[in-house]
């Protein structure tokens, strides 16, 4: 009599997969070997999904680490686009996408600082707390990445950071490293006509025609070692966009849109080298602009060099709407408030400014700024509002750490404008709606989609008016003909 087949335990997920041999009286167990990253990169579509389905949860997690295991699978129809946010900070760039634009994005943020990583996590981001130099963008979990954002530390490009990145020796090392990384990742086009010196009938299709060279396969440590000679270590992180974009493209990632946020003091040479590598790789549109958060409605200035790129189309430059926000009114402070930034020290730039305007750039030193008359300091919710975040944004860490995170932020307003332009969204309307939420006393105004005209003889609501109609009414100060219907909370 055959031996009965034992019941499979309910907690079977991490056990080896098995098959039944129906021609014998015994059960045979087949262990599914864990494939390598190279194995996964050689697969696609249903074949890839089938191999991943044959593995245990532990095996998939090990293969995907540190990325989500679901990223090993091809995206399904309707899934939000995947993206990586390198040196994400406290999540300002993602806030532009999520809070201002309402864009659904499956974004993984990479951030080394513990407090900033905790803040971004609390704000709703998926965060990997790691040094980017230890992560290889040629990972199979990144094969389906479509968006990329980079906000590397920028202090060493500025006067405040003594401009170490701009030192000629450091700059030479960085630019040479960009060239070398491009070669290692196969981003060099060889002119085949220069190689062909024989009869066209004997030409080899690969050797004798224009082609990109083969990637060297060099380990990530070797690529980052190219900037080991730089004394400005954070400035050396400007190599990251080249490593990550070309690295992901080398494994077939369908990168479409890219954003880089950096100090406005970033040398033009660095900007041009990065731009040139993207053009060589086939990117259709790449541009750098200096954009100031104050022109997009922030209560504080923050002028940055922003690169936006799209692989397949030309969205054009970002046009600032020139929306001004008075910091005192935004916070509800007296209009005659004056803020002291340096105590009793006297400097050439002064140490007191009026709050009754869009204020100077909020840096980490805002932790010590105080009202000259009362000695009152800004609370963390107030600092959030000064950099155009909601007052309840979940900033983690000590007061010093919180202020540093907010001082280093990629403005969500500029992020929304840049990403909105790349994605073809009506971001100016979305921006104004967001400003009305965080600065209601200054920017609260009817939502174009919710405005209806009142009329004594009308028995049903009129159609919504256009944005141009609203601007007209407000320009004339003619608010009475309209009423606002607040939509029900979903």
Distance between the termini: 63 Å
- Quick one: overall form? globular
Tell me about the largest β-sheet.
Answer: 7 strands, mixed
- In the sheet with the most strands, the strands line up as 5-4-3-6-9-11-10
Radius of gyration (CA) equals 27 Å
- Per DSSP E runs of 2 or more residues, the count of β-strands stands at 16
Q: In percent terms, what proportion of residues is strand?
A: 5-15%
Question: Could you list the spans in which at least 5 consecutive residues all have pLDDT below 50?
Answer: 5-29, 446-467, 473-490
How much helix, percentage-wise, in residues?
25-40%
What is the overall number of helices? 16
Structural class: alpha/beta
Kindly report the average pLDDT value: 84
Please outline the helices and strands.
Elements: E1 18-20, E2 27-29, H1 37-41, H2 45-53, H3 57-64, E3 82-86, H4 92-100, E4 106-110, H5 114-122, E5 126-128, E6 145-150, H6 168-184, E7 189-190, E8 211-212, H7 220-224, H8 240-250, E9 257-263, H9 268-281, E10 285-292, E11 303-310, H10 327-331, E12 338-340, E13 352-354, E14 370-371, H11 380-386, H12 399-407, H13 412-423, H14 427-438, H15 440-443, E15 451-453, H16 467-476, E16 482-484
Parallel strand pairs: 3-4, 3-6, 4-5, 6-9
Antiparallel strand pairs: 1-2, 7-8, 9-11, 10-11, 12-13, 12-14, 15-16
């Amino acid at each position: 009599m055959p031996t009965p087949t034992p019941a499979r335990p309910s907690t079977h997920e991490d056990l080896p997969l098995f098959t039944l041999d129906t021609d014998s009286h015994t059960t045979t167990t087949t262990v599914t070997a864990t494939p390598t990253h190279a194995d996964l990169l050689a697969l696609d579509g249903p074949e890839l999904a089938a191999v991943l389905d044959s593995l245990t949860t532990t095996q998939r997690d090990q293969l995907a680490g540190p990325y989500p295991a679901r990223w090993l699978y091809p995206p399904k129809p309707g899934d939000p686009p995947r993206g990586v946010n390198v040196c994400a900070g406290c999540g300002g760039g993602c806030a532009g996408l999520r809070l201002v634009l309402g864009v659904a994005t499956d974004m993984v943020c990479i951030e080394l600082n513990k407090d900033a990583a905790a803040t971004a996590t609390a704000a709703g981001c998926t965060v990997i707390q790691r040094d980017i130099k230890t992560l290889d963008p040629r990972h199979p979990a990144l094969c389906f990445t479509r968006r990329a954002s980079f906000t590397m530390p920028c202090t060493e490009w500025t006067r405040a950071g003594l401009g170490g990145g701009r030192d000629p020796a450091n700059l030479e090392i960085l630019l040479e490293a960009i060239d070398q990384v491009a070669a290692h990742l196969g981003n060099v086009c060889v002119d085949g006509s220069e190689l062909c010196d024989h009869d066209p009938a004997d030409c080899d299709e690969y050797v004798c025609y224009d082609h990109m060279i083969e990637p060297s396969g060099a380990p990530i440590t070797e690529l980052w070692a190219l900037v080991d000679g730089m004394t400005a270590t954070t400035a050396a992180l400007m190599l990251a966009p080249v490593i990550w974009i070309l690295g992901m493209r080398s494994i077939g990632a369908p990168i479409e849109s890219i954003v880089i946020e950096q100090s406005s003091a970033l040398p033009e040479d660095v900007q041009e080298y990065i731009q040139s590598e993207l053009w060589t790789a086939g990117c259709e549109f790449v541009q750098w602009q200096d954009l100031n958060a104050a022109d997009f409605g922030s209560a504080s200035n923050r002028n940055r060099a922003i690169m936006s790129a799209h692989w397949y189309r030309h969205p054009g430059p970002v046009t600032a709407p020139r929306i001004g926000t008075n910091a005192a009114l935004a916070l509800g402070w007296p209009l005659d408030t004056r803020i002291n930034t340096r105590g009793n020290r006297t400097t050439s730039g002064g140490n007191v400014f009026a709050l009754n305007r869009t204020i100077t750039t909020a840096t980490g030193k805002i932790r010590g700024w105080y009202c000259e008359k009362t000695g009152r300091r800004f609370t963390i919710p107030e600092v959030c509002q000064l950099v155009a975040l909601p007052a309840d944004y979940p900033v983690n860490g000590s007061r010093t750490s919180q202020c540093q995170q907010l001082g280093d932020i990629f403005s969500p307003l500029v992020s929304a404008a840049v990403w909105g332009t790349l994605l073809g969204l009506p971001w100016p309307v979305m921006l104004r709606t967001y400003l009305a939420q965080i600065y209601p006393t200054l920017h609260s105004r009817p939502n174009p989609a919710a405005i209806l005209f009142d009329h004594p003889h009308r028995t049903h609501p009129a159609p919504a008016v256009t944005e141009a109609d609203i601007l007209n009414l407000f320009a004339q100060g003619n608010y009475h003909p309209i009423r606002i219907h607040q939509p029900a909370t979903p």
